[in-house]
Amino acid sequence: MTNVRFLNPDGTLAAEATAPPGQRLLTLAQTLGLPLEGTCEGAMACSTCHVLVAPTDLSKLPAPSAHEEDMLDFTPHAGPTSRLSCQIELTADLATLEVRLPPNHANMQGR
Ligand code: FES
């Protein structure tokens, strides 16, 4: 199980939950009602699932694919720890993960 903390853009806690292995981070966020659209449902065609991973947690995750990196190059507010949450699988050996919602999470669509 993975204990996941979602932070608001200002760093305050938005939600915290425990997820079973195999669940996608995007799915968990949507289950919690967080504003990650996930418009393309994981096809890496929208970047509306963008999150900023806590710098200390970034090395816990497999490196992004070249396609994911390409998408992040065109994602507003992307930074060095940005990831597409549809591409993050919560694995059994991932005990904790903290991610922050980007500043424009509420109006990404249509950009
Ligand atoms: S849901 Fe579209 S890129 Fe992740």
Salient structural properties:
single chain; 111 residues; alpha+beta; five-stranded mixed β-sheet; 14% helix; 23% strand; globular; binds FE2/S2 (inorganic) cluster
Proportion in β-strands: 15-25%
Order of helices and strands: EEHEHEE
Which small-molecule species are bound to the chains here?
FE2/S2 (inorganic) cluster
Low-confidence stretches: 106-111
Mean pLDDT: 93
Structural class: alpha+beta
| Strand arrangement across the biggest beta sheet | 2-1-5-3-4
| Major β-sheet annotation | 5 strands, mixed
- Percent of residues in helical segments? 10-25%
Distance between the termini: 35 Å
Number of strands: 5
Notes on the protein architecture:
The structure is a single chain. With 111 residues, the chain is an alpha+beta fold. It is 14% helix and 23% strand. It has 2 helices and 5 strands. It has helices at 25-31, 66-73, and strands spanning 2-7, 13-19, 50-53, 82-84, 96-100. The chain binds FE2/S2 (inorganic) cluster. FE2/S2 (inorganic) cluster (FES) is lined by residues 26, 38-42, 44-49, 84, 86.
What does the secondary structure layout of this molecule look like, with pairings?
Elements: E1 2-7, E2 13-19, H1 25-31, E3 50-53, H2 66-73, E4 82-84, E5 96-100
Parallel strand pairs: 1-5
Antiparallel strand pairs: 1-2, 3-4, 3-5
The chain binds FE2/S2 (inorganic) cluster.
Residues 26, 38-42, 44-49, 84, 86 line the site of FE2/S2 (inorganic) cluster.
